[in-house]
User: Fold this.
Amino acid sequence: MRTIGSCVIRAGAERARALPRHRLRRVIGPITLVVFVFGQCASAMATSTKVTLHLKVVPIPVNPAKPKGPSYADTGNVLEKGAAVEGDVQIHGGEYGFLSPLAGVSVFAPAGLKLHSQGFPVCSLVSTVPEEPYAVVESAHLEVGAAYEQGSRLIPYVTLPRHCAKGGLPVRVKLSFLIGGPVQIDTRLPCPTKR
Assistant:
């Protein structure tokens, strides 16, 4: 498998501020105690984050804003053809008893899958209101894949590989959170048809 897309979400530095050296010494002792106590409590109540991911390969919609509309001919779950992927993700639990904001997403797909990386956006944390925590993703419906026409030729952003191993196309998704460890999801897409 190889990485086909990765997004690291970064918080802005506008929340950071430096303390004067004399105030820093007064703060370090109590902070060390609080961090130690919180660390002990957090490890006692920690639960793992559980992620459910369902994916399917579909034809590429002509207008991505209207996924139920018409799709490009000769695309979809077919070897060596352009495709889009639809999916649903649900995130439950949280390592410390609550969900943490999503900080990064990496997607790994089978060798042979071609990716036109120009069409993938930069990710960023979503602020709720100033000086408050970032938004948390509990569930999402994903639609990835588009195409553009260059003359009479269709250029898809995702093209399925030439071959499919027995058992399907392996896909790995790794989610990173601001607090807690990453979660890795391994799944397989059914083998595409041959045309």
